[in-house]
């Protein structure tokens, strides 16, 4: 009796499935008085036909339920977000935040860094040293070795000189067990206006720290200080258009989707509450995509919802 009570509580497709199996099997089985059973061709086709109909109906209801639940789950992901605030033009997703257009595109940073009058923002460590510049696996190293080919050493020297001039004296830290270095802090920004005769400005933002016994690491909250310093220095240089990769997602070790969300939040915070004398007009965040056939570093679903989040009213 308890089993029957539990059965009637189940979804209709489960009940129909069990009844269908019973109706198909029952006419094909004979049980004698000693509870020995034998199989044979069905003695009547009516219950078999009804059982098959129930099996088909149960399968159809199960498939419908599965599709409906998936659609509901997909809609719930965007619940509370106004996705209409996100625009898509030529593959670029964007939202307006405090009068600043924040765009997210897929590709390589160098493909979006050709215009004069704009600034390229690149991540570096707290030491602003040559280890970042010479590492072609990092965003900074890849960009510098391509755009400053033959002048990488000169670029590194310029960075060291400008750090001491603009960021003040650093603080000696034990970088590795065998090396001490001068740290200028995390969340700091160094803006180089058209370095070595280039047409674009280059801004370095320290997004990672490295200490002996701890290794190299990035933190989301480093981005907030870095973006505020960046916008302040851009205002002084009268620059209002920047492009950058997903800061913190490389050697910093932050998962790319999380790094993107953190970066967009930091940009939105700086755009709304930062320097107003020279408002930032456009920011282009480039999500790395090796080639047209390769997957992007961050899925567009995440990008769209993150932009909807920062573009919503405060």
Sheet-strand content, in percent, reads 15-25%
Question: What's the total helix number?
Answer: 9
Taking the alpha carbons of the first and last residues, their distance comes to 58 Å
Gross morphology is elongated
Q: Would you tell me the overall average pLDDT?
A: 81
Low-pLDDT sequence parts = 72-77
The CATH topology of the largest domain comes to Leucine Aminopeptidase, subunit E, domain 1
Please give the largest β-sheet: 9 strands, mixed
Helix vs. strand class: alpha/beta
Q: What is the CA-based Rg, rounded? A: 31 Å
Number of domains: 2
CATH superfamily of the largest domain: Leucine Aminopeptidase, subunit E, domain 1
Order of helices and strands: HHEEHEEEEHHHEEEEEHEHEH
Q: Please, could you describe this protein's structure?
A:
The protein contains 9 helices and 13 strands. The chain has 314 residues and is an alpha/beta fold. The protein folds into 2 domains: 76 residues; 229 residues, Leucine Aminopeptidase, subunit E, domain 1 (3-Layer(aba) Sandwich). Helix 2 packs antiparallel against helix 3.
Features:
23% strand, alpha/beta, 41% helix, nine-stranded mixed beta sheet, 13 strands, Leucine Aminopeptidase, subunit E, domain 1, 9 helices, 2 domains, single chain, 314 residues, two-stranded antiparallel ribbon
